[in-house]
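Hey, can you fold this?
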Amino acid sequence: MLVQRSAPPVLPTYGSYKQYLRFDFYYACAYCSTSEVEAGAIGFEIDHYKPRVEGGSDDYENLMWSCEHCNGGASKGDWWPTADQQAQGIRLLRPDFDNLAEHYDLDGTELKSKSVTAETSITMLRLNRETLRRLRSFRDRLYRAKGATMLGLQALQQISLDHLKPELALKLIEIRREMQINEAELKEALDACTIRAFNHSPMLDPDPNKKHHATARKAYLESIKAILPPPPTIASS
């Protein structure tokens, strides 16, 4: 799915774009697609696609939402391709610019490259590491389970009552009636189960009471003298 960037106002620091980035990148890593929920103990952070040490800006277009693994020094770090390498397609893929389906194939749980750019991304970011292959396997099982559930619900609607025992026919009629009554709720639940809703972790949402808690904490620590006062200024003679 191609990321469609929003158009936030110009903000004073790149860190201020955090919530825009989380939403635009579907609450998932721009590089390995691991969601905030799936990541568990792995943290997320703002990445400069072109590193600042290489002249990358703090402009929103240069910022990505990334897991620590992909952005860390052992993976992407501050690497940036030379002009010659870029001419050969040696760079990292970005979902807000590239159609990933044109660069990757998924063979079971392993990504296969269809371009030099994909090969660079797979190798540098270790996109076939075991944790990601396990995650792809889990996603596949979840998708197939959802499909089987939908088929089962459709089958319940299509079963003929003619050859069923009376008690079973009555039970089936009751189930169908409940499905019709709850149809609106089911539709609402399915509509809410979007990629963003599934990937989003409230643990990374801003705390609306942060300032209040910080003020209360400071006051309490001062009351028990847990915060030492600054040393007195020595006046020069």
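Oh, and this one too while you're at it.
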Amino acid sequence: MKIIVTGSLGNISKPLSAQLIAQGHSVAIVTTDPGKKEAIHRLGAIAAVGSVTDEAFLTGVFTGADAEAIRASGIKRVVQLSSWGAHLPAGTGIIIGSHRIEELFDRLTGVDLSYLCPASFYTNLYHYVDMIKTSGMIATNYGGNDKVV
């Protein structure tokens, strides 16, 4: 299969791409950073350098792909990494962006959609290491008294 992965070489897209390549799939990785082109090639993928806000660029990248697409490319299968809380229309802070993306995808006709909605990723904790070392806690701007898994 020809699969397009967005998210460049992030915590999800890099190991996902490596697994897909190991299974024999042709993978193109979308990145905005031309400096990541060589690392993408070393992984065994095709580097697609451009912006996810550029419709012409995305249409070219997605045309002929077997997974994850936009309307103009004619692709019939999209797997979207969304977020816990994306089903809520307000009150979720930056997660509202995931809600809006789901709304856009839901308007597509003839496209099989799947949304993956994790609560959090273990690697997110890396951002708190210095705070934990210096203050002994994790302080965030969300949650209040709510417990988050």
